[in-house]
Amino acid sequence: MQENLYNLAFERSILSSIVFEPSQFDELSVALRRDDFYLPAHQDIFKAMTLLLQKDQPIDEEFIKKELIKMKKFDESVMLEILSANPISNTKAYVDEIKDKSLKRHLLTLTTEIKRVTVEEELPSAEVIDIVEKKLYEITQDNQTSDFKDSPKMTFDTMEYIKEMKARGNNVLVGVDTGFHELNKMTTGFGKGDLVIVAARPAMGKTSFILNTVNSLITKGKGVAFFSLEMPAEQLMLRLLSIQTSIPLQKLRVGDMNDDQWSSLNGAIDKMNHAKLFVDDQGSININQLRSKLRKLKNQHPEIEIAVIDYLQIMQGVGSQDRHLQVSEISRGLKMLARELNMPIVALSQLNRGLESRNDKRPMLSDIRESGSIEQDADIILFVYRDDVYLYKEEKEREKAAKAEGKEFTPTYIEKEEEDAEIIIGKQRNGPTGHVKLVFQKKLTRFVDGVPRAVETVYENVDTRSANINIGNDSVSMPPL
């Protein structure tokens, strides 16, 4: 069994190769870590080599010996074994073997850790799963190595991409369809590996907005994963059915429909029974649990093209660190997961209420709660804004003040069934920022494309600063018709 966990001859050969050809260490120090070596003495020698590299000193027998003596780790017999080992030319094969055995040792250590937290500490199963998933993720990330891409490789890949885009003709859509023509023109869709933030104040309709995107995708047979931390899955389904059938949401909720509407609803449910929509409405989830669930789902259903989290600030942190550090870990984790799964992840986000004290209440990047890490990690940040929300609120406040003073109140705001809405592109790493005009149909909680108009856009450089409709493990059970 032990021979599967380490190979001392390989370790000696790698270290010997470095001693006899120190120029190799630059490359090998990127691929290998100290604890990839099994023998503690080999770990010490590799550490000494690393220290010499940092000091820009020769990595040879005498300097390694001097460094080890300073560390009080010099073992003459081990050094002689390394010097007598044959240097190798094909170090990659040896490195791969050492990394493979190192990974097995880490996994074996993890099994011991599982036993400790499960049996000895008697932790709850949910906490054990969280610990295991986090450790497993750390192990797999530490074991991954990647080399630079050279110019020929990059130019070849880029030309293949350009040819693919040319074959599409004049189609502006490159990524995942947003469901809105003008927004597609501005963004070319949500790109693979992108972290997209959709932010708004409460009642602006950020969930309704993203459900329009979801509906557009599933009606085209695309797969969607939806993590609903705030709303039960059945409520999401009611909203989707309202969007599809044009039946007011309130009528769907109470079943107050005429024969034509019932018929339309039956047709929509029949279509939704074949939709590739997967909803997790657990209500509380952390980044490790989400990562594990989405990886498993994507593996089982490769047709999933996008994942949605509603919403980011409800996600639980890992550990007891400060909330802004937890949010930073969450946003970074979502970005890395999007790249790993090669698909966009859309996370909804709340905005600070401070913006409501401004005359112009249109959101800015600094209005995002815990905005620093979110702004930095996001590839696209969209703000949902409807001026009528504030006009209506101000009207009600004036009415309340007039009644308190015993004065007669004359309404000036007329509530509309359709309101102008804006999608403000606050950040786009690879494209323009600007505004897109939409229309919000209140009774249907539905956004539709507005009248196209010229919009002022700002191009920025890459930003370095800133049914089986499965719900969880169950299928949707709709109320009897």
Automatic annotation (TrEMBL):
Coiled coil: none annotated. The keyword Metal-binding does not apply. GO terms for cellular component: cytosol; primosome complex. GO terms for molecular function: 5'-3' DNA helicase activity; ATP binding; ATP hydrolysis activity; DNA binding. InterPro entries: DNA_heli_DnaB-like_N_sf, DNA_helicase_DnaB, DNA_helicase_DnaB-like_C, DNA_helicase_DnaB-like_N, DNA_helicase_N/primase_C, P-loop_NTPase. The keyword Membrane does not apply. This is Replicative DNA helicase.
